[in-house]
Automatic annotation (TrEMBL):
Its EC number is 4.1.1.77. One of its GO terms (molecular function) is 2-oxopent-4-enoate hydratase activity. InterPro entries: 4-oxalocrotonate_decarboxylase, Fumarylacetoacetase-like_C, Fumarylacetoacetase_C_sf, Hydratase-Decarb/MhpD_sf. Coiled coil: none annotated. This is 2-oxo-3-hexenedioate decarboxylase. Residues 93-258 form the Fumarylacetoacetase-like C-terminal domain. GO terms for cellular component: cytoplasm. Pfam families: FAA_hydrolase.
């Protein structure tokens, strides 16, 4: 750790107030170029603790920057991990208020729900599939708190990996009946297909993102408990949205889920 606890608290406060008031900020690494990964996750954890202290529940976890398309779009090379608070959840077909966002984008993802605990180190795709209750379509709404959506990895980790809202829905399926590498997805905006892909875009297999998350948590003495919802990361580039947009994700064999921006 390179930052003291007062600085970590202050940076968490700065980023969370940007989230809650929908205004942007400069990258925190501009001010603290020497901050390290532990500092970045400590800031994210401080934001999580402050939400819990105000009565929010944590309802899921996420992996991000797990596809080549996303890494290329954001100019980074390593996946990152974050959490989802209860008020991020939008019901299937429900509304996201653009006035609560800075510059929202949507990402097509495969969501996993676990039925048994996943614990690293050494967690692998096989363990993830054995521990998965079902998978289903998920749209993540990301909204970087950084100006112009420009950041580096440590800044985005501190900012809870741009997490803002999400929706899951469609047809939950058992992983034994689907090859998540070849499963096709279509993301539609206002009825027009805008992004296409297949599960293998995420680290070769979306379950690999969940295994990476379990191994990452193991380094901190944590695990993925049974019954956890996890977003495995955007399969394609993120797509900008504005008020009036209607976004639907169709996943082969899993139906669809949608969200409206108002
Ligand atoms: C970081 C979060 C990326 C994903 O699915 O790749 C992410 C960002 O691009 O703002 O959630
Ligand atoms: Mg995402």
């Amino acid at each position: 750790m390179k930052l003291d606890s007062k600085t970590i608290e202050a940076l968490a406060e700065r980023l969370e107030s940007c989230e809650l008031q929908a205004h942007d900020t400069t990258k925190i690494t501009d001010d603290y170029p020497d901050m390290d990964w532990d500092d970045a996750y400590a800031i994210q954890n401080t934001i999580k603790a402050s939400k819990i202290a105000r009565g929010s529940r944590i309802v899921g976890l996420k992996a991000g920057l797990t596809s080549h398309a996303k890494m290329k779009q954001m100019g980074v090379t390593t996946p990152v991990f974050g959490f989802m608070a209860d008020y991020y959840a939008v019901p299937d077909g429900g509304e996201c208020k653009v006035s609560e966002m800075i510059h929202p984008k949507v990402e097509p993802e495969i969501a996993f729900v676990t039925k048994s605990e996943l614990r690293g180190p050494g967690c692998h795709i096989g363990a993830v599939l054995a521990a998965t209750d079902f998978v289903l379509p998920g749209i993540e709404v990301i909204d970087s708190r950084y100006r112009d959506f420009k950041f580096d990895l440590k800044s985005v980790v501190a900012d809870n990996t741009s997490a803002a809202r999400f929706v899951v829905g469609g047809q939950p399926v058992d992983v034994s009946g689907v090859d998540l590498r070849t499963v096709g997805i279509v993301l539609e905006k206002n009825g027009v297909p805008v992004a296409f892909g297949a599960g293998a875009a995420v680290l070769g297999h979306p379950a690999a993102a969940i295994a990476m998350l379990a191994n990452h948590l193991a380094e901190r003495g944590e695990c993925i408990p049974a019954g956890t919802l996890i977003l495995s990361g955007g399969i394609t580039e993120a797509v900008s949205v504005a008020a009036g947009d209607n976004v639907t994700l169709r996943v082969q064999g899993m139906g669809s889920t949608s969200i409206r921006f108002v």
